[in-house]
Write a structure and sequence with these properties.
By secondary structure, this protein is of the alpha/beta class. The protein is built from 14 helices and 20 strands. A 5-stranded mixed β-sheet has the order 9-10-11-14-15. Strands 2-1-20 form a 3-stranded mixed β-sheet. Strand 10, helix 8 and strand 11 form a beta-alpha-beta unit.
């Protein structure tokens, strides 16, 4: 099997997912540090994830694999993979204090008695044990700490991107996410999907990449930096043209808040050939550096703005979404074939997003304009029943949309696109 994607609208064949596990429980105890937008129900989030998977499998015949199962199967087939899994766990678990040497020695002796599912969970949680010696035999106090558990691992879009060449392993920008790519890279290699390129010096996250046939878009800003872009262009992609999109500031904020549009796919996506869905006000503010492939290398030839780049240079029809819809991940849908998408239920998500934004505006008046516009959008969209995908333009273009309830999962800052690692289209 070879991972390869040339356009977002080509038929979706294979995706990999991971249901939110115990690591998400700890993320919900302190959502800010976990890079979550708000607190949500983990039990309901898991049910939403199951419904998304079922929709892809039974509704569209997509092959959906679970990340942990891929590793478990590889470890079951290949002894060296099972041994590497053990060694990675041994390197991950830390022991501190007066009895640390004993604990470390006994852990090494007994680790092969653990289920492999436990080993994977240990990698995800990254525990550290600190001991204090009390009086008397076996009087030891143990304190367990999780060192940056992978609270966002269920967002499998971002650790890598799949291009016309194959998997490009990323390097997440935020410390809580940095180890995610180490784990997915290990899994891709042992499953026979070795990455064709790896970002090593800069940062790159998969939500910043959108393939579009003869060209591709690559976002840069808070999550993907200039060094990461150059590394990506050097070996990760081979299409004739790449538009490097600079992350714009939200038009209703007087200062940059990269979380409101952290990745390119949070304000733009392609539901079909020649069709885009995006927040037009933000697209108009996003500068694009246009690179052409010449002699095996990309050279910057011209600049534009994202909205005219799509509409005038490439002839795309852009379906606009409102301020509130953008905040509700309307553009973070997953295209399953040309003009067919699986999209978060924006109407169901809107009330929670608006309530959370209201609390943010109370704490920080600089968000008042954004909140007032979102509240206006909510009243208008509810009155006319035109929450995305129920737009006249979408109907005119024959867009088929299956809505899935993701109002809990979107509380972690992502939608259907973010939740899936697409490996193969075509």
């Amino acid at each position: 099997m070879t991972a390869r994607v040339t356009a977002e609208w080509n038929p979706l064949r294979r995706v990999v997912v991971r249901s939110p596990g115990m690591e998400a429980f700890f993320g919900l105890l302190e959502p800010y540090a976990a890079l979550y937008e708000r607190v949500f129900s983990l039990a309901k989030a898991r049910k939403e994830h199951e419904e998304l998977v079922e929709t892809l499998r039974t509704g569209f015949g997509v092959h959906v694999a679970y990340l942990d199962q891929i590793l478990l199967q590889a470890a079951g087939r290949q002894t060296h993979v099972a041994e590497e899994l053990v060694e990675r766990v041994l390197a991950t678990v830390a022991f501190r204090g007066p009895t640390a040497a004993r604990a470390r020695r006994e852990f090494r002796q007994s680790i092969r008695s653990l289920d492999r599912e436990q080993l994977i969970e240990t990698l995800v949680l990254s525990p550290e044990f600190r001991f204090e010696q009390g009086r008397g035999p076996r009087s030891v106090e143990s304190y367990a700490t999780l060192r940056q558990p992978l609270t966002n691992l269920f967002f499998l879009r971002d650790q890598q991107a799949v291009t016309d060449r194959g998997i490009v392993l990323g390097r997440p920008a935020k410390p809580p996410r940095r180890r995610e790519a180490e784990l997915t890279g290990f899994i891709w290699r042992v499953s026979g999907e070795a990455p064709v390129a790896e970002i090593q010096r800069g940062t790159f996250e998969g939500g910043d990449f959108l393939p579009a046939g003869s060209f591709a878009l690559l976002g840069t800003g808070d999550r993907t930096n200039a060094t990461g872009v150059q590394e990506f262009l050097a070996g990760g992609v081979g299409v004739p043209e790449v538009g490097v999109v600079h992350q714009p500031r939200h038009p209703l904020l007087d200062r940059a808040d990269p979380m409101v549009n952290m990745h390119l796919d949070t304000y733009l996506n392609f539901p079909g050939e020649g069709i885009a869905v995006g927040y037009r006000e933000m697209l108009a503010l996003a500068r694009v550096d246009i690179y052409h492939r010449e002699g095996g290398k990309y050279r910057k030839r011209e600049c534009s703005w994202l909205l005219p780049y799509l509409e005038k240079i490439h002839g795309f029809r852009v379906i606009g979404i409102s301020t509130l819809e953008q905040l509700c991940y309307a553009s973070n849908f997953l295209t399953v074939r040309d003009r067919a998408i699986v999209v978060p239920d924006v109407a169901r998500n809107a009330e929670r997003v608006l309530a959370n934004l209201g609390r943010v505006a109370e704490r920080d008046p600089r968000y008042n304009r954004l909140y007032l516009q979102a509240a206006h959008d909510y009243a208008e969209l509810r009155a006319n029943g035109q929450f995305f995908p129920h737009k006249p333009a979408a109907k005119e273009l024959g867009l088929e949309a299956v809505r899935v309830p993701l109002e809990n999962l979107t509380g972690a800052f992502g939608g259907a696109h973010c939740l899936t690692a697409t490996l193969e289209r075509g």
